[in-house]
């Protein structure tokens, strides 16, 4: 027999964790964004000063533009490419399970390990430049050129995320009723026509989910920058979260770092609302 | 109902047990009212130096009845966060091991005790050039502990392939040889990580005398920047190392670098990574800058300003850094002592003819101690200042800018940080 108390007892443990480790710290950070706080000396209320300082902080705007650029590089690729992978591995071909595993494998590797592996591959004398040299091409400055660094890092994120998002699409595909395709066959629809009129519309909720999650992931990316480029060269790969970390834990400007976090929070929320408006329509 | 009552009783009993466990410290304190406990934090010395630290603590406790030292070792990656959060909650250890940059940051926040007032009697025991490591705006906030000054590990094979029998002796000579080594072997010679040290050890101060403005916009600095621009055009500067994307020791171990200028205590890392490369390596003295001064990295021992047992803490800080204890530490590792008397010990002479680069490096390094100078300006935002100068330097290299403009831009950036 269902009782309200049962629901609460199931919700309470996760709710408590969420409250203690996410909601309270988020509100504490919101409060800190209106203060000057260096961890050791008492908190000093400064009103909107941190937000005003942000407006004229060119590094913050560079970090914001880097973050948006990184998002543009990463999210469309992670929304579109895994659909094709999922369609591919959803077919009853021989050995398809091995392919599913191979595509999913990068997701299982920790981001730090991924960062080290790709750092080696991106080195001036690394394997990627070696391959280019075999093709007779000039070596590329994958991580040391300020125009190349974000596309290179985006490549790593896409490589690692493909398999993860493929799984969502795969489960979405498997819930598409087979008779829709059969009816389309009877109507003489080809492969692409079927994908356009059946697969993509039926996958719309999954597309929305992937768009939102990969957007949040792109806006919060930090580990790759921390381990591969330290935000460089010349801040070309400094994302907002990397800057928040630097501001908070290197410079001890907790107030300024909290203000940055909240501007980022608003940006992510805005994009989520836009995503919802355009992708989650019935 | 009965069930829920017994649950409440059980819960209360558990809470009481937890509270009792948490308050056991108070019980101990009540038991021995006369005992004083001081907390001592070190950076990444455990487990290798457990016996050494525990032995030192035992001796101190025996010599100072009633004082208990509680030692805790903190991994290097966690030390800044742990120190900061503990300072915020008033739980910073009484005696704490800090690197020079972070020490100045904490001193600027008022978290450390003034050692000019508390330990002036031991100032003469230390090398003058490293005593300054603990300075912040005219006062000293730490005693120097162990240190490492620069010596050079070089690959004899690579040098031979390039046609050299001996390693370079000056910075300029090292760059000249780099050109030949790069051409003949493909390896780099010099691995530049920061331009700041080149400025400092060429006699160009970063800040003015009262540390309120940048002071490095001088023709000599422009000349240094211009030289590097030229070297970069010739492909002699390993970009990944300059951009902190690769570690010099790893590149040295892969024979992509002909030499690595660092403290002899770090040479072992090459042996761990590539014993065969270590085997064909030798040590030589630091490349000479125009002033003859040698860069040095110092580990410091500070006392918390909020320590409730400051006298005991200062006494322990002096004990840890005294010549006898420092000599013992040097014998167990390859770090150097900051106490003059310890460095005079015959132990260091043993490495003179050694074929092991670590032992030889230690001998060479100890002989450089008189010339080893901590020249970092005593201000809190050292790391930001270093980054500002380096950023403009890197911008000059990548965007092919005028060296004079780059130095001026760096000066502007540093002045903004000092406002």
TrEMBL record, chain A:
The keyword Membrane applies. InterPro entries: ABC_transporter_permease, MetI-like, MetI-like_sf. It is found in: Cell membrane. It comes from the Bacteria. The chain crosses the membrane at residues 68-89, 101-121, 148-170, 202-219, 252-274. Keywords: Cell membrane, Membrane, Transmembrane, Transmembrane helix, Transport. Its main location: membrane. The keyword NADP does not apply. Residues 64-275 form the ABC transmembrane type-1 domain. It is a multi-pass membrane protein. Pfam families: BPD_transp_1. Belongs to the binding-protein-dependent transport system permease family. This is Lactose ABC transporter permease.
TrEMBL record, chain B:
InterPro entries: Bact_solute-bd_prot1, SBP. Pfam families: SBP_bac_8. It comes from the Bacteria. Keywords: Signal. Residues 1-20 form the signal peptide. The keyword Signal applies. The keyword Signal applies. PANTHER family: ARABINOSE-BINDING PROTEIN-RELATED, DIACETYLCHITOBIOSE BINDING PROTEIN DASA. This is Sugar ABC transporter substrate-binding protein. The lineage of its organism: Bacteria, Bacillati, Bacillota, Bacilli, Bacillales.
């Amino acid at each position: 027999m269902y009782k309200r108390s049962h629901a609460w007892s199931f919700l309470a443990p996760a709710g408590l964790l969420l409250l203690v480790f996410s909601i309270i710290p988020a509100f504490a950070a919101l409060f800190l964004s209106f203060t000057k706080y260096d961890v050791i000396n008492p908190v000093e209320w400064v009103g909107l000063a941190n937000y005003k300082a942000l407006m004229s902080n060119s590094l913050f705007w560079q970090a914001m533009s880097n973050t948006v650029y990184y998002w543009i590089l990463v999210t469309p690729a992670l929304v579109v490419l895994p659909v094709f992978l999922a369609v591919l591995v959803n077919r009853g071909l021989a050995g398809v399970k091995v392919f599913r595993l191979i595509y999913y494998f990068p997701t299982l590797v920790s981001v730090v390990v991924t960062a080290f592996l790709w750092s080696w591959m991106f080195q001036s004398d690394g394997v990627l430049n070696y391959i280019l040299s075999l093709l007779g091409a000039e070596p590329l400055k994958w991580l040391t050129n300020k125009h190349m660094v974000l596309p290179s890092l985006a490549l790593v994120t896409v490589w690692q995320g493909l398999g993860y998002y493929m799984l969502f699409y795969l489960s979405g595909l498997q819930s598409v009723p087979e008779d829709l395709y059969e009816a389309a066959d009877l109507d003489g629809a080809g492969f692409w026509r079927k994908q356009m009129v059946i697969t993509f519309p039926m996958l719309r909720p999954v597309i929305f989910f992937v768009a939102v999650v990969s957007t949040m992931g792109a806006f919060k990316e930090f580990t790759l920058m921390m381990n591969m480029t330290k935000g460089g060269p010349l801040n070309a790969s400094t994302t907002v979260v990397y800057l928040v970390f630097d501001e908070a834990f290197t410079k001890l400007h907790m107030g300024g770092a909290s203000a940055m976090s909240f501007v980022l929070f608003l940006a992510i929320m805005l994009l989520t609302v836009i995503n919802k408006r355009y992708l989650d329509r019935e | 109902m009965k069930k829920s009552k017994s649950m409440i009783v059980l819960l209360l009993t558990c809470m009481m047990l937890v509270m009792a466990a948490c308050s056991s410290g108070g019980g101990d304190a009540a038991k021995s009212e006369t005992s004083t406990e001081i907390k001592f934090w070190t950076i990444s010395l455990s487990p290798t130096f457990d016996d050494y630290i525990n032995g030192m603590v035992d001796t101190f406790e025996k010599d100072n009845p009633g004082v208990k030292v509680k030692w805790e070792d903190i991994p290097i990656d966690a030390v800044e966060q742990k120190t900061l959060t503990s300072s915020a909650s008033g739980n910073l250890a009484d005696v704490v091991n800090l690197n020079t940059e972070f020490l100045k940051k904490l001193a600027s926040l008022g978290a450390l005790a003034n050692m000019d007032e508390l330990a002036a009697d031991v100032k003469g025991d230390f090398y003058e050039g490293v005593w300054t490591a603990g300075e912040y705006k005219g006062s000293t906030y730490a005693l120097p502990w162990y240190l490492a000054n620069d010596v050079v590990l070089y690959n004899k094979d690579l040098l031979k392939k390039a046609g050299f029998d001996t390693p370079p002796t000056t910075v300029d000579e090292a760059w000249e040889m780099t050109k030949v080594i790069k051409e003949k072997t493909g390896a780099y010679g010099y691995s530049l990580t920061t331009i700041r040290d080149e400025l400092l050890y060429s006699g160009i101060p970063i800040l003015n005398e009262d540390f309120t403005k940048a002071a490095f916009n001088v023709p000599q600095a422009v000349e240094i920047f211009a030289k590097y621009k030229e070297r970069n055009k010739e492909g002699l500067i390993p970009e990944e190392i300059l951009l902190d994307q690769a570690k010099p020791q790893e590149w040295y171990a892969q024979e992509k670098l002909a030499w690595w200028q660092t403290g002899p205590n770090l040479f072992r890392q090459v042996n761990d990574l590539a014993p065969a490369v270590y085997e064909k390596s030798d040590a030589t003295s630091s490349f000479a800058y125009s002033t003859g001064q040698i860069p040095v990295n110092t580990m410091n021992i500070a006392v918390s300003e909020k320590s409730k047992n400051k006298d005991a803490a200062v006494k322990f800080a002096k004990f840890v850094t005294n010549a006898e204890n420092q000599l013992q530490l040097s014998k167990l590792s390859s770090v150097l002592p900051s106490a003059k008397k310890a460095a005079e010990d015959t132990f260091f002479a043993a490495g003179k003819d050694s074929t092991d680069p670590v032992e030889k490096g230690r001998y060479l390094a100890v002989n450089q101690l008189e010339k080893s100078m901590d020249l970092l300006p005593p201000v809190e935002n050292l790391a930001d200042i270093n980054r500002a100068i380096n950023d403009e330097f890197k911008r000059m290299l990548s965007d092919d800018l005028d060296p004079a403009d780059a130095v001026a831009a760096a000066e502007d950036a540093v002045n903004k940080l000092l406002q």
